[in-house]
Amino acid sequence: MNQLDRLRQEIDRCDQIIVSALEERMNAVIKVLNHKRNNWMPIFQPEREKQVIEKVLDQLKHKEFSREIEKIYIEIMRNSRRIQSKQLFPYNIVLIGFMGAGKSSVGEYLSKLLEMEWIDVDQKIEEHQGMKIHEMFDIYGESYFREIETEVVYEIQDRENTIFSCGGGVVLRKENIEALKRNGRLVLLQAEAETIYERLKDDRTRPLLKNQMAVSAIAQRLGERKQRYHDAADFIIDTNDKDIPAVCQEIICELMK
Ligand code: S3P
Fold it and tell me: Does 221 sit in the ligand 1 pocket, CB within 6 Å?
């Protein structure tokens, strides 16, 4: 055996140790998850993740690799979140609600917290068509947009363990809701017309509120859709006066009930 082969054997031995340690670690993560679940404890605790990384870095004999090891551990933590959310949510989490209810911001934050994939349906429609939603409304009209919206909903319905942020009008078609329910839990993010106005008043990208950015116009459209939102939802989260992390924690609690 030449010297290179001997050195490679050393690496192979390290890999055996790493792989079996990782396997053991992942099994331990599932045990912790089950314990927390049985005792109604919060599952995702970012402060605990920080402590784990600090503890690992403290153990290093040679600080020269600390940056690299930290990066690996950040990935290990992500992986743990993914393992846990796969066990907890073996379905899609579908966010519905009026414009400005926070579907996109909550979806993005939740996807990082749970390390789940995230699809913003409006963004997907824009990619599909190679144009912005407001351009689509201007050039082809709302009914064309609704056709494409349904096509995209059908395309994504079979996914698993994914978060969808839907457009506010997705509830207007029964077939959209049927498709989304097939493999998903529907979460209605709710906000008062005043809250929505405050969140959107400087936003020029919402075609349905173009030239109508007023609390009364929002309240009227919200009233027209309210029943559909409630009929479609598996549960409702009030987002008035709440920040995004608080909304996400409430969603997780409700899903785990
Ligand atoms: C719509 C809401 C928009 C977008 C389109 C139509 C609606 O999505 O899908 O402008 O009918 O409420 P957001 O709710 O994300 O703004």
Answer: no
At 204 the pLDDT is: 85
pLDDT given for residue 207 in this prediction: 85
133 lines ligand 1 (CB under 6 A): yes
How close is the Cα of 49 to the center of ligand 1, in Å? 36
pLDDT computed for residue 212 by the predictor:
85
pLDDT at position 61 is 87
Where does 159-243 show beta strands of DSSP type E? 162-165, 184-190, 235-238
The arrangement of secondary structure in 92-256, i.e. its CATH architecture, is 3-Layer(aba) Sandwich (3.40)
How far apart are the C-alpha atoms of 199 and 98, rounded to whole Å?
A: 12
Domain boundaries in the chain? 3-88, 92-256
CA dist., res. 139 & res. 144, Å (int)? 10
pLDDT lower than 50: segments of the chain: none
* 3-88: CATH superfamily: Chorismate mutase (1.20.59.10)
Considering the entire predicted model, what is its pTM? 0.91
